[in-house]
Amino acid sequence: MIKVNHLSKHFEDLRKGRVYALEDVSFEVRPGEIFGLLGPNGAGKTTCLRILSTVLKPSSGEAIVAGFDVAHHPAEVRQNIGFMSGNTGIYDRMTGWELVEYFGRLYGLPEDLLQHRLHEVFETLKMEDVRDVLGSKMSTGMKQKVSIARTIVHDPPVLIFDEPTSGLDVLVARALLEAIDALRSKGKSIIFSTHIMREVEKLCDRVAIIHKGQILASGTIEELSTRYQEPEMEELFFDLIRQADGDALELE
Amino acid sequence: MTWRNIRLIFFREVADQLRDRRTLFMVVILPLLLYPAMGIGMMQMTLLFSEQPRTVVVLGAKSLPSPPLLSQDGSRILDQWFVTEGDSQTLQIVSDLPEDDEVGPRTPSELESLQLAREIRLRLDELKRLRDEVQSLTENDSEVVAMKQGQIESLLEEIAEYFARANIQVLIVIPDGFDEYIRRENQRLAAREPSVENEPRLQPTIIRNSANEKSLIAYGRVREAFDNWEQAVLSERLALADLPADLTQPINAERVDLAKGEELAANVWSKLFPAMLVIMAMTGAFYPAVDLGAGEKERGTMETLLICPALRSEIVIGKFLTVLLFSLITALLNLVSMGVTGLHVLNTAGGGELSAVGDVAIPGMEVLIWVGILAIPLAALFASLSLAFALFAKSTKEGQYYLTPLLTVTMGLTVFCLSPAVELTPFYSLIPVMGPALLLKGMLLTSNAQPGLMWYVLPVLISSFAYSGLALAWAIDQFQREEVLFREAERFNVRLWIRHLLRDKESIPSFSEAIFCFVMIMLLQFALLKTFGSALQNAPAGQESWTMLRLLVVQQLVIIACPALFMGILLTSNPLFTFQLRLPKLKYLALGLLLPLLLHPVVVELAMRLAWFFPSLPPHAQAALSTMSDGSVPWIWLILAFAVAPAICEELAFRGFILSGFRHSGRHVLAITLSGILFGVMHMIPQQVFNAALLGVLLGLLAIKSGSILPSMLFHFVNNALGVLHGNLGTIREQGDWAGNWAQQLTVTSELGTTYRLSVVLIAALLAGLLIAWLIKQRTVPMPVRRREDTAE
Questions:
Q1: ipTM score of complex
Q2: Inter-chain CB pairs, A–B, below 8 Å
Q3: Residue in A75, A89, A107 closest to B304 by CB
């Protein structure tokens, strides 16, 4: 449901000239699968996911999401994805219900289906307590719940989560991961970026380790462990990154 | 784009703004409270102001002739000498009546003023003596005169010093025996006796300091009373001599003022309403726009909105409608509140100065509806402009910074509109902000309304909406750009930036470099305006035309070609490419030669037909044009200055650097239009702006299609050379040779000047149209942007 082929993205930077935030990245996410994008800060995870959500345009390469090319059919892509990141805030002067309802309408849900979905989503996510609370009065956990509800209200086949647990306390983070886990069983294609190993180990079917805009390794966790003969995910991650930085140093 | 999404976004934004207490306060509460509060404040100020009487010292009050000017105790000027009742209270008179300082209710400060006034009188006598002496001296005594003049100067200074120390606003000095003198004169006139030779003429002195505002106001009142009193003294004299009372007014014209009270009121409204409407529509748009644009980026909800299926254009239009609504509400509420408060204040505090304004009635219903209608294009323009700025800004703080330039420009235009001499003209009606403001001003001035004002409604509305449409398109364009949406707070460093410019050179300039080049050209032009002007003025007589030509060439080289060449060599890796210096296909050169020949009759015809639309040419431009045809300069030099230099210099800049920069984004239509418009703007004079912008578009098209600058240079040269030729057509027609014959075949002369025959114009226009259509169909020569490392490979 997500197919990324040789995707690159560069920016112009005053200090460094042209900077590649993403360089020749390829991967695939299938329905009923959670794909983890694991990398340190500034690795290019957010850029990659922003391209998938059509907010940024790729410099080269292509990305097909839910059957549509992100560069050529951005509206159709957006219709079929749910996107949530640390940057997708919620409105201060809207209640939880109003916000989810608003986005449901923007996704073009017919009114009766929308009301049905709203009740369903608010029930499954146990959100009755945030229903009539204004965004400015919500706790971080409440806001996160509303964001998830907003992400899934139109029941999209593809879900993109960009570091959804950053800044959350353990309880809220756990609830969130459980919610994502539940979505997998509904057959969604889910891509999930993080820099926390445990989340990957617990949740992801397959994983790609990304660093400085390039994918260093990808596969299921077992595959990676066997390939690099390193059972500990965390060690494997550090080894790969150290190796990549070392190569870069040698080149220079 | 669907209306459904726009409406969804619009309603959400409106609800959001209404839930924001700050916005509600700014939009609704503030105007409702501000004006009444200001009204109360103003009334208090007026009260306080009127309680401060000005001090006037009268010396020699006992010598005042009848009828009495002052009251019995000499403490005020009698009411009867003032036009407005109660004005006598504003002047506090300190007179030497009674003469003994110890008698009478005088305060110590009054006594001091009196004392200092007496000092001044002594010096006044001295001054008079000195002046008389100077009068009596002959030219031979120039040294003595100079000395006496010096004494007079220092005496005046001394008087000024005493005057300031005395803390009085006006000093009136009546000479001793003045009443006797007047009586004697009266009797002499009654007896029809001739006046006695050498008898000194007595005259009172009134001293003021008109640089001091208090003194100026007091003097105005004193003079009014004094004039009326003098009139009475004169009447007495005439009556005594048995002469008619109107002896001194042989003409005595009757003056009729047709202005009615409400018209005076309309005058007040016609100034206040347009200005308030413009400023309030502007501020009413700006704050919500910043909140909806930069504010949403700051609060992190922008990305949430961007990943929903709504198109960017739908989002921007939804937001634009919200801003428009709030701008309208703010503007209209402010006007209503101001109108009602103003009416109330004036009606309550009427009388006094304000009674001259008359009954300040609210303008009629029809006019109020027009205010509402004209508020819409104004609000639409400001809403789209501020939204574009707000979407560009990355934080509300940055957004607020853009208010100042926007407000300054708007205020400038508004102040210009307020000037009584400025009336709506076809040209002004197409200028943003000015069109609606002037139209409104004209409509509020019901009495001496500009004839045919209603004809302007359509052009004003259409042009205003066109401008807001452009601004909205710009806002949407902003919103499509990644670097605007995800601008990061990157550290800006001039050194790094310059290094980046020089290091990461591309084959052609960037969009902003092209804009910068244009700004440089305009700034240079502006800076050197005075230098050129004075050079022209100092030109030796008979050499003006030569100087003009030389200056034109210098201007082309220094102001236009230099910045472009300099930037092209410095900032691009491939100047040849940037300036499109390569050989074109022959067909384009042929077109560059043929097209201007065909277009010239059309341009001449258009210029003549549209002359009414433009303001008349400024004198210096007329002078420049007259050099073309006055025959004082050989035609080869005219061609050089008017055709060769512009063809090379302006083409290098506008079809070279600037057009290439605009093509950076690959949007050719935008590049051609924008470079054409800028080319027009550079010409400053409205007629030429219009003409040059159209030509600029055509030249841009030619340059882009041919992939070379040479055809447009040829076009430019032929076009300008024809202009020179046209200036001399009159002379050519007179010649009997073949050229004269041809000229007579093709052209006609009328009182408007020489134009081509209509048949010639039509055929030329048809052929030119065909050629342009053919040109548009040609394949565009691509101009790939290549970076230095790419080109090096």
A1: 0.91
A2: 75
A3: A89
